[in-house]
Amino acid sequence: MIETGRDTVVRTPLCVDSTCASTLRRASQARLLELLASVPIYRQLIDEYPGAKIIVPRE
After folding, report:
1. Cβ-contact 40, 5 below 8 angstroms
2. Are residues 29 and 53 in contact, defined by beta-carbon separation less than 8 angstroms?
């Protein structure tokens, strides 16, 4: 976890194949939150940081 000022960055690995990764890059914030919330530990993070912005990095 990286904290800079008031921003907190939490890198969260989520294994997906290359086809899904491409689709995720185009997904809405609502869809990304929905997908991450299906994993219990990520659901806890979303509950703790409800204003979180999800970013899918290009690799």
Report:
1. no
2. yes
Distance CA 52, CA 8 (A): 9
pTM, two decimal places: 0.69
Domain contains 46: yes
Range of the domain at 34: 27-59
pLDDT at 24: 85
DSSP state at residue 6: T
| Helix, strand, coil distribution of the chain in percent, nearest 5 | 45, 10, 45
* Residue 2 three-state SS: strand
Total domains present in the chain: 1
- Asked, for residue 58, whether it belongs to a domain, the answer is yes
Distance, CA of 40 to CA of 28 (rounded, Å): 20
Any domain includes 48: yes
